[in-house]
Amino acid sequence: MEERYSKAETLALRRKHIGPSCKVFFAKDPLKIVRAQGQYMFDEKGEKYLDCINNVAHVGHSHPYVIKAATKQMELLNTNSRFLHDNLVQYAQRLTATLPEKLSVCYFVNSGSEANDLALRLARQYHGHQDVITLENAYHGHVTSLIDISPYKFNQLGKDSKKEFVHVAPSPDIYRGKYREDHPDPASAYAAEVKKIIEETQKNGRKIAAFIAESMQSCGGQVIPPVGYFQKVAEYVRAVGGVFIADEVQVGFGRVGKHFWAFQLQGEDFVPDIVTMGKPIGNGHPMSCVVSTREIAESFGASGMEYFNTFGGNPVSCAIGLAVLEVIEQEDLQGNATRVGNYLLELLAEQKEKHPLVGDIRGVGLFVGVDLVKDQQKRTPATAEALHLIYKLKEHQILLSADGPHRNILKFKPPMCFTMEDAKHVVETIDALLTEIEEATGMKTENNASANAQYQTKTIEGNSQSEGANESISHMNGAACRQENGLYSKKCSLPSETIRT
Q1: Backbone torsions φ then ψ of 30, nearest 5 degrees
Q2: Residue 362: how many CB atoms within 10 A of its CB?
Q3: Long-range CB contacts (< 8 A, 24+ apart) of 89-95?
Q4: Residue 71, Cβ neighbours under 10 Å: how many?
Q5: What pLDDT score does 400 carry?
Q6: What's the whole-number mean pLDDT along residues 90-99?
Q7: Consecutive H or E run containing 353
Q8: Which of 232, 302, 323, 424 has the smallest number of Cβ neighbours within 10 A?
Q9: Mutual angle of helices 315-330 and 86-96, in 10-degree steps
Q10: Which has the higher per-residue pLDDT, 153 or 466?
């Protein structure tokens, strides 16, 4: 396909007409992507890149079944949800069937940010409370209401940027957090921190509207909460009239393998009050959803203010949403996430045994983080090395991101059609590149043996292996992740920008 502009012209026009805060991947040499198929992206020269980071193209880039569904409906009608249409109710029925029974009422919107913003409105209307508890390093969206509850963003604005109605709880990170893998009950310990916040806010005359958390923190560093944490937090929050919002924008729709939703990793006894979803829901089409209980929905309706969204729940979006659900089922993409994810974790575990730069491997299904460290015992983040590795992988036509508070986590969240061959290829390339870095920096691979004796591979399971954790919630001593830009130097200190994915 002939391009209208050269890469240089495209870049120049972007700099002229697009806001400077809108960043690109690989700023030193950005990619110009002109098409994509499955788990591959192609640049203007026809070069093929393996996409390991695109959880938006959930069932694969340019999936023909999804495209056909969109095109067919677009040829007939696209209008707003004030008109009756079967696509809306059919999709709502199909979507809620994947959730626990009490989560039965849908509000369709257009992005994860819109979904989380609406979830806050629902929570605040429910009992008239205003305050929100969020987690360290959390990111929930780009609109003002969500920047306010996203430490990942508002901390960049300075120490006085946190609003008085926002309360930040420790991230339930058992690798770098306050309570680590050697704690007898980290779930209870981290939940107790939330309880302390609630007690303190009550003393100050404030009232909690909601606790919000990604079911597994993505920007916060691929953090997998210890099993039982959400149950205890929900108990404390509900006791004071608040609700539990599970943000599934990054990790929903079968990415974790056995379960359709990541919050289900906590066990069958946990059900959030509100669930938000986005990114993978439309395989690249802009759509999202908030699902709540009937009680919360009726409270929101009782305010007297109509809720209307011009594009939310339109027939084309719903047709696409239905097609995505059908592809997940027909192509057994949940099963693929389990099989390939487990294989990827096994391959990466071998790298942890081999390379002193690898501090932790953690993940579930096709949501996996590799925590790079300068020292395995001190767990010193290897930020420069991680960013250097990302750029070297790009040279090998593999797209991966580095994320987390320290930007030292290699972050895997590929399209769900990712294969075992893809996993093997990526890990073999990482192996070779880590060897190069370790040789350049003088890190001794033989020293890894003693470190591994102290920090052994751990697997966290939902309940039992047979019940809930075949998807292999793996924590080989782990926690943290976020995005690009920077090249490695021996001195290892690189200021680099981050890009949310």
Answers
A1: -65, 150
A2: 32
A3: 90/318, 90/322, 91/313, 91/318, 91/321, 91/322, 94/322, 94/325, 95/289, 95/291, 95/321, 95/325
A4: 11
A5: 97
A6: 98
A7: helix 333-354
A8: 302
A9: 40
A10: 153
3-class SS letters over 71-115: HHHHCCCCCCCCCCCHHHHHHHHHHHCCCCCCCCEEEEECCHHHH
Each residue's pLDDT tens digit, 247-271: 999 999 999 999 999 999 999 999 9
Find out whether 366 and 474 touch, Cβ atoms under 8 Å: no
Q: Is 270 exposed, middle or buried (0-12, 13-18, 19+ CB in 10 A)?
A: buried
Span between the terminal Cα atoms of the chain, in Å: 27
Handedness of CA 467, 322, 95, 121 (dihedral sign): positive
Looking at beta carbons, which pairs linking 95-102 to residues 24 or more positions away fall under 8 Å?
95/289, 95/291, 95/321, 95/325, 96/291, 98/260, 98/261, 98/325, 99/261, 99/275, 99/291, 100/271, 102/271, 102/293, 102/294
Residue 408 phi/psi, 5-degree rounding, is: -120, 10
Q: Label residues 208-228 b or e (16+ Cβ within 10 Å = b).
A: bbbbbbbbbbbbbbbbbbbbb
Give CA–CA dist 236/210, Å, rounded. 11
What burial class does residue 11 get, using C-beta atoms within 10 Å of its C-beta: 0-12 exposed, 13-18 middle, 19+ buried? middle
How many percent of the chain have pLDDT more than 90? 84
Dihedral sign of CA atoms 189, 190, 195, 201 in order: positive
**33-37 β-sheet, strand order:** 33-37, 40-43, 48-51, 398-399
Tally of residues, the chain: 501
Residue 406: the pLDDT is: 95
Q: How far apart are CA 299 and CA 290, in angstroms?
A: 15
